[in-house]
Amino acid sequence: MKCRLKKVWKRIKLYFTLPHFWVVGIILILSVAVFVLSLLCKDNNTFMSSVFANIFAGLITGLVISLISAIKTMSLYRTECIINWLNHLHEDILEFRKMHHKLISFKNEEEFKNADALYHYIYDTLCYGESINVTISQGRFKESLPFNPYEYFKKEFKYDAVSHSKENGELRERIMVLDVRNISNKELVKMFENMDRQLFTLNGEMLKHIITLEVKKKAINISVM
After folding, report:
1. In whole angstroms, what is the distance from residue 171 CA to residue 96 CA?
2. Residue by residue, what is the 3-state secondary structure of the chain?
3. Out of 29, 60, 96, 142, which residue is the most buried by the measure of CB atoms under 10 Å away?
């Protein structure tokens, strides 16, 4: 519970760095000050009390408008952050798929005639694929993000990066003792089958989700104007 409250507080502090919330805070302070002045002048100077009361009413209207604008800005900021984050991860998945494609067609690659070079490339491909899970799971500790990538992926894509990392750990153990001197394309395809399928499926779901978020972003921009 304490850890959750700490995360919520960090998220609130992040949003309060946005200028719209500073405007809300200033208007709120002015509203309180004017309201107090109106009460102080109520008995001694009814005219000034009335003036302050009118100013207070105007500030409250401004406060409501500013608060609505701040909430919209917060939603827009979060949506843009998610879109940018997903786009970067999409690029990482594309890079992995390029490596994977090159790996499973290694018979046509001159550089893989050397067994050590092939083994290192197999291991590098594994590490690059696993780095995607690490990026997702470690994203929850980044205070600069207005969302929790690990929980977000579990909710939106039914993708548990920690669980898949454990599966990749088992694959790593197999690769550590792998003899590549007589390995076939079919064996490599089978070896990376789960990782490639998971990331391919995830990438497709991400691209569809990005389109949805872009529509949401456009709707928020229109409503803010």
Report:
1. 16
2. CHHHHHHHHHHHHHHCCCHHHHHHHHHHHHHHHHHHHHHHCCCCCHHHHHHHHHHHHHHHHHHHHHHHHHHHHHHHHHHHHHHHHHHHHHHHHHHHHHHHHHHHCHHHCHHHHCHHHHHHHHHHHHHHHHHHHHHHHHHHHCCCCCCCHHHHHHHHHCCCHHHHHHHHHHHHHHHHCCCCCCCCHHHHHHHCHHHHHHHHHHHHHHHHHHHHHHHHHHHHHHHHC
3. 96
Tell me, yes or no, if the pTM score tops 0.90.
no
CA 18 to CA 2: how far, in whole Å? Answer: 26
Spatial distance between the Cα atoms of 90 and 101, rounded to a whole number of angstroms: 16
User: pLDDT tens, 37-94?
Assistant: 888 888 788 888 888 888 888 888 888 887 888 788 888 989 999 999 999 999 999 9
Rounded Cα–Cα distance for residues 153 and 206 (Å): 9
Q: What are the residues whose beta carbons fall under 8 Å from the beta carbon of 14, sequence distance 6 or more?
A: 143, 144, 146
Angle at 194 between CA 190 and CA 186, to 5 degrees: 10
